[in-house]
Design a protein that fits this description.
The complex is a heterodimer of chains A (288) and B (316). Chain A is 73% helix and 0% strand. Chain A is mostly helical and 288 residues long. Chain A has a domain of 181 residues: MetI-like (MetI-like fold). With 316 residues, chain B is mainly alpha-helical. Chain B folds into 2 domains: 38 residues; 244 residues, MetI-like fold (Orthogonal Bundle). The chains are: A mainly alpha (288), B mainly alpha (316). Chains A and B meet through helix 1, helix 2, helix 4, helix 5 and helix 6 of A and helix 1, helix 4, helix 5, helix 6 and helix 7 of B.
């Protein structure tokens, strides 16, 4: 028994250490954003600022046009992306989940094949920009690579086959309900957990996406929050565009404050929904 | 006889039509997803021929003249082909090994914690980095590594040591990238292993307890053997993807610094730069084609291995 107590203590020690390592960078980021600029330049960032200042946030508030617009674009893209993705993934997976569907095996392979082989960045980029002309449009942020994939489809299909009793669907059919009616009135109300899980996974992916913006947008007026952060990373003068507000930009601290704007919504939302994330990860990992 | 056959045929046709009528609404439901996969995943396959062409934006894919294997010759004559292949493989091997060891260890520790709220707290915290975009991760890394302002240099200066120029010295980067990757990814693997452990329940351990097994013996003779299939599964799956790298990690975290390329460039970052920063479509399409093909081969090989070990876990 004493061995057990020792092992439990060791477990807590390791877990506390790992937790501190996980949080420390966020702590540093927050503290850095509240540091006085000249102090940051002279002494560097520290875990507790020697001189506090709100100048970085003041500067961002003056630039709210840029950030407010970035937020708006990211929110619009995320909401649109989540709605479309959830709808087409649910419908496709529902079709695949139905026993007796003609060509079911072939369709399953059609999905799995996308995990084995792909055209790669070059041909995808050329197709989307030359054939579909989505460069410099909002579609560029919504459509490529994010709308659905084999991972989501498998996860939802497994839910449909495992958690919704076929007898229930059959009963609705005998009652004369149409397939669409069964899907919307019987299957969907029973699928709330998987809808929430899928919606959150997709939502985080859209919120965090910067690659589509980097590939397909030359026009920075369409930048969402992640692409603004990426642009600041590539060129710290990016924030100075669009006319000065008269104040000198606190370069080193303002970029930290900008990064906080990028993660704040996730930091706020995540703790409330972490169960769904955990469920999504464990369900997606086990392929059925 | 003939009449009977025709009527049987007609009946079959009728049944087929009724059948079609039954399934048609379902096919309509599946259509948007089907089309999206076709556009996003199947149409670009045709673009793979660009690797064998001298691509010209004006002429399009089919109009551009053939170039034989010249793009590949060009790619494999450079030192780049070797460097990006070596980096992609070496980093992935290290990540796969560390994932297996660290995530399993952490899952075992986490499984010890019986108090639900405490367990949930740890779980929430270690998964948090996984939800950050790699742009944000590069900011977090910069807060530590920056030349003038980074925490590490400010500590070094405070104790009278010289600053380290992380972003222009490639020898640190294998360690930095490995650390960042583990920092971000460890929660994900841990949760998968933990869910497997939770599924086993306590009966094995209770029996071992009665026999007076120590904690270490329980881990060695119960936990690890029970986890073995999951470890083999996840490791084999990642081995199948060993030629694919996390573009964001290798592009964002080193901030795309040219001095670091020898240590940080992978196939994915190389393809991106050749395509969109240097505009060299021949080179980038050759590298992308090379990656698609070797990826397909490794996935088929490792999927074959999984099929032998446990059929239900194979991709197909």
């Amino acid at each position: 028994m004493r061995g057990h107590k020792k092992f439990l203590a060791l477990s807590h020690a390791v877990l506390i250490l790992v937790s501190i390592l996980a949080i420390l960078p966020f702590w540093l980021l927050i503290m850095a954003s509240f540091t006085e600029e000249s102090c940051a330049v002279k002494h560097g960032y520290s875990l507790l600022p020697k001189e506090w200042s709100l100048a970085a946030y003041q500067y961002l508030a003056d630039k709210w046009q840029l950030f407010g617009k970035g937020y708006l674009i990211t929110i619009v893209v995320t909401v649109a992306g989540v709605c479309v993705c959830v709808l087409i993934t649910l419908m496709f997976s529902y079709m695949l989940s139905r026993p007796g569907l003609p060509g079911r095996k072939l369709l399953t392979f059609y999905v799995i094949f996308t995990m084995l082989f792909n055209g790669g960045l070059v041909s995808t980029y050329i197709m989307y920009s030359q054939t579909f002309h989505i460069k410099n449009t909002l579609f560029a942020l919504i459509i490529p690579n994010l709308l659905t994939n084999a991972f989501y489809i498998t996860m939802v299909r497994n839910y449909f086959t495992g958690s919704i009793p076929q007898e229930l669907l059959e009963a609705a059919r005998i009652d004369g309900c149409s397939e669409f009616g069964i899907f919307f009135k019987v299957a969907l109300p029973l699928s709330k957990p998987i809808i929430a899980t899928l919606g959150l996974l997709v939502g985080v992916n859209y919120w965090n996406d910067w690659q589509n913006g980097m590939y397909y947008l030359d026009d920075s007026s369409l930048y969402g929050i992640q692409n603004i952060l990426n642009a600041i990373n590539e060129n710290s003068k990016y924030l100075m565009q669009g006319g000065g507000s008269g104040t000198v930009m606190p370069t080193e601290t303002v970029r930290m404050a900008a990064a906080i704007l990028g993660i704040l919504p996730i930091l706020i939302v995540y703790p409330f929904f972490q169960d769904y994330f955990v469920k999504g990860i464990t369900m997606g990992a086990v392929k059925g | 006889m003939k009449a009977a056959q025709t009527s049987a045929n007609a009946m079959q046709k009728k049944a087929g039509r009724a059948n079609m009528k039954k399934w048609l609404p379902l096919f309509i439901m599946g259509l948007p997803g089907f089309l999206y996969l076709f556009i996003n995943n199947y149409m670009p396959l045709y673009g793979l021929v660009i690797a064998f062409k001298k691509y010209n934006y004006k002429l399009g894919i089919s109009g551009s003249p053939w170039a034989g294997l010249s793009n590949f010759e060009y790619l494999f004559k450079t030192k780049d082909a070797w460097i990006i292949t070596r980096n992609t493989l070496a980093y992935n091997l290290v990540f796969i090994a560390l994932d297996a060891v660290l995530c399993v260890a952490l899952a075992i520790f986490l499984n010890e914690v019986r108090k639900k709220t405490t367990k949930k707290f740890y779980q929430t915290v270690i998964l948090l980095p996984y939800l950050m975009s790699l742009v944000v991760v590069s900011y977090l890394a910069y807060a530590f590594l920056g030349d003038r302002t980074g925490l590490i240099n400010s500590v070094l200066n405070a104790v009278g040591l010289e600053s380290v120029q992380f972003y222009s010295n490639k020898s640190y980067w294998p360690f930095i990238l490995t650390f960042v990757r583990m920092w971000r990814g460890i929660g994900y693997g841990t949760i998968i292993y933990l869910s497997t452990l939770v599924g086993f329940g306590d009966t094995w351990y209770e029996a071992a307890e009665l026999d007076g097994a120590t904690k270490w013996q329980q881990i060695k003779f119960i936990t690890l053997p029970l986890l073995k299939p999951t470890i083999i599964m996840l490791t084999t799956l990642s081995m199948g993807n060993i030629f694919r790298s996390d573009f964001g990690l290798f592009y964002q975290v080193p901030r795309n610094q040219g001095l670091l390329y020898a240590a940080t460039d992978t196939i994915d970052t190389y393809v991106f730069r050749a395509l969109l920063q240097n505009g060299n479509i021949g080179l980038s399409s050759a590298a992308a084609f090379y990656q698609s093909i070797v990826c397909l081969i490794t996935i088929l090989v490792f999927n074959g291995i999984i099929r032998r070990v446990s059929k239900e876990n194979a991709l197909f």
